[in-house]
Amino acid sequence: MHLVLKTLLNHVERLQGFVYESSRLIEGRVPRIEIQLRARERSRGACSHCHKPAPGYDRLAERQFQFVPLWGIPTYFRYAPRRVRCREHGIVVEHLPWALGKRPLTASFAWFLASWAKMLSWQDVSRTFKTSWESVFRSVEMAVDWGRARMDLTGISAAGVDEIHWRKGRFLTLVYQINEGMKRLLFVAENREETSLRKFFLWLGPKRSAQIRFICSDMWQPYLNVIAERAPQALNILDRYHIAAKMNKAIDEVRAKETREVRARNRLSRSSLVLKHSRWCLLKRAENLTARQTVKLKELLACNLRTVRAYLLKEQFQFFWEYASAAWAGNFLEQWCAAAMRSRLEPMKKIARMLRTHKPLILNWFEAREQVSLGAVEGLNNRLKANLRRSYGFRTYRAIKVMLYHKLGALPEPEHAHRFC
Q1: CA distances from 50 to 57, 83, 103 (A)
Q2: Is residue 228 domain-shared with residue 172, that is, in the same domain?
Q3: For helices 291-301 and 306-317, what crossing angle results, to 10°?
Q4: What is the pTM of this model?
Q5: How is the beta sheet containing 235-238 ordered, strand by strand?
Q6: Which of 39, 167, 217, 399 can bridge 394 by disulfide, Cβ–Cβ 3.0-4.6 Å?
Q7: Given CA atoms 86, 90, 91, 97 in this order, what sign does their dihedral have?
Q8: Which domain covers residue 205, as residue numbers?
C-alpha cells in the first residue's frame, strides 16, 4: 500500500527537499491515514521568512497536518519540524512547503475546502470533510486574500452600485463589474454612506476610475454625490428595477390605506371584499399573473377605487421604457408626472416629484441600454441574497464580506491537483 500511496503523492503533491517515508491506516471508530514525512538526506532546511537555506539548530516535537481525504478517509501528514539558524532572521522554524504557518492544515486541503465552500455551506463542508467550521472559514479567507491580491482590474468600463440590507438596521454597499462577458462583485463596504462608496474608488485608484464609462445606481443621494465627484466622466444611469420597486411600494401604500378606510366604514361592502387579497394582483406584471389572480384583477378594475387609479398609472408608465428616443421618452415622462400630480394620490405624487428631480439620470438609460447589461446588477443581487439566506448564522461583517467575495468575486485560483468536476 505504501508504495502505491507514495507514487500517487509524488505525482500530485511532490515536496521539494522532503520524502514520504511511511504510511499506515489506523483502525477505529473513525479510521485515519497517517503519512510520515522526513527531510531528504543531507538537505538543509530553509528559513520560513526568506526561504533561504540555513544550517540546522535543533528539532521540535512532531506535528500533524490534515491533508485532502483519500478514499473518504481523513488523512494526516506527520513531521517533526527543524529549527534553523538564519543569518538574517536568527533561529526560526524551517519553511514547510505543504503548511500554512502554524495552522494544522496543509495548503492543498485548505484550497480543497475553499473549492467545496463555493457549492456548499461552510457548516456542510466542515461536517462532510471531518474538520472544524473555523478551518473552513480560514481556508476561504486564505483563498479570498490570494485571489484579491491577484485580481485583473483592467478593462472595467461598466459598474453597478447598490446597497443591500444585511441585518437589522445594517446595510452593505456593493459595487459590481457589469461588462459584457465579465460580471462579478468588485467591492463590499459596510453601511451605505458616502465614505462607503469612496472606499471603492480609493481601492480602484484614479487611473482605473477614469476608465469607467457607465455606472448604474439607484437614487440614493450619497451614492450620486460620490459618483459625480470621483467618476464625472461616467454616464450615471438610474436602475430601472429601483424605479419599479418604488412604484410598487407607492401602490401598496394606496391599497393599504384604502383597505383600512373601506373596512372601517363597512366590512362587508363590495369594495372591501374586492380589495381583500388583492396585493399581488396589483404588484405583479400582467403576464405573470395566475388564472385566479387574473380574475381578481378584472374585478378590481371594474371598481372606481383609488387603488385602481394608482395601478393604471403604474401600468401606463411601462410605455416609457419602450421609446427608442430619449427626447420622446422625456416628453412622455413629463405628461405622466403631470397626470400623477393631478391624481390626488400622495404616494404617486411623491413618485412624480422623484422622477422629475432625477429626470436626466433616468433618460441616460436610453443611451446605455444597447451597450451595458443593465439587468446584471439585479441578477447579481438575487444571487447575493440567496447566499445571505444560506449564511444566516454569520454575525460579523468580516465573515459576510469573505463569503461574498468568495462566491461572487470570480477570483483567480492557483493551479492545484485536488480539483473536482
Answers
A1: 17, 14, 19
A2: yes
A3: 120
A4: 0.84
A5: 182-190, 170-179, 158-167, 214-217, 235-238
A6: 399
A7: negative
A8: 158-239+374-408
